[in-house]
Structures are given as structure tokens and as C-alpha cells.
């Protein structure tokens, strides 16, 4: 099953602080070239300078997930979810991460929470329907 995620690094640029934006091209290049260690190190350097910057925490989570470190990415999004409980984007992305980890019940909860906050949230609706479809397939195969 493949859920759709809105981890678009271009979208992250809109969220990042101006002081960080100057190194954006460098980080994108590192990510594109698969330089995981360097990309994460640079993001972590910024987080050391600005530890409470939600955009940087979002970017770190997205970067970690991009490089297959989904469990670590999930921890970043849990931090954001606790700080910003009314943000449907964070909840949807947490749902995506749980789905990637095979934790479909938790994924469903976060997709539903995202939809409670924003009833017309297309990505969360699509992701929830994929989870529901998987549940139906599982139940009919028993």
C-alpha cells in the first residue's frame, strides 16, 4: 500500500526561516545526490541554533524520512504534533509515517484527526481511503 505524503522539499522552503533559506540550494543538492549524512548534519546544525523552530523540525523529519529513517522522522513529527495539535498537515504526515511503518491503526487515527481539523483535506481523505481499502481486503481474506 502506498499512501501519499506531502513531504515536498519545495513546500518546506516556504516554511523555513529566512536565515536558513540561504543554504536551501545546498541542502536540496545534498538530498538529490543522496548525501544523507551531510544533509542531516546541516539541518541538525540549524536546529542547534534554533531548537524551537517548527519549520526546521518539519524539515528534519522530512529529510530523515526521505533517507529511509522513518522511525526517527516520526519522532520529529510527534514533537510537532504535541506543539501544534490543531495542524492537520502534521497529523496527515504522521499518519503517512505510521502507515510506512505498518502501524495502520495509528495511521488511521491520525488521518481521521487531520480530517476533523480540516474536513476538505484531500490528501488525508485519500490516505484514509487507502487504509480503509486495505482493511476491507484484509477482512475479506480471512
UniProtKB/TrEMBL annotation:
Residues 1-21 form the signal peptide. The keyword Repeat applies. TPR repeats lie at residues 88-121. PROSITE patterns: TPR. Keywords: Repeat, Signal, TPR repeat. InterPro entries: TPR-like_helical_dom_sf, TPR_2, TPR_rpt. Pfam families: TPR_2. The keyword Methyltransferase does not apply. This is Uncharacterized protein.
Amino acid at each position: 500500500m502506498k499512501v501519499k505524503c506531502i513531504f515536498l522539499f519545495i513546500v518546506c522552503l516556504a516554511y523555513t526561516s529566512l536565515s536558513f533559506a540561504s543554504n536551501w540550494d545546498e541542502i536540496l543538492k545534498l538530498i538529490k545526490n543522496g548525501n544523507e549524512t551531510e544533509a542531516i548534519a546541516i539541518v541538525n546544525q540549524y536546529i542547534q541554533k534554533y531548537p524551537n523552530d517548527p519549520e526546521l523540525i518539519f524539515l528534519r523529519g522530512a529529510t530523515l524520512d526521505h533517507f529511509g529513517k522513518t522511525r526517527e522522522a516520526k519522532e520529529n513529527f510527534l514533537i510537532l504534533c504535541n506543539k501544534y495539535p490543531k495542524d492537520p498537515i502534521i497529523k496527515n504526515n504522521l499518519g503517512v509515517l505510521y502507515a510506512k511503518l505498518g502501524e495502520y491503526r495509528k495511521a488511521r487515527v491520525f488521518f481521521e484527526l487531520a480530517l476533523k481539523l480540516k474536513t476538505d483535506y484531500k490528501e488525508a481523505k485519500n490516505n484514509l481511503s487507502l487504509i480503509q481499502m486495505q482493511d476491507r481486503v484484509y477482512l475479506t481474506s480471512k
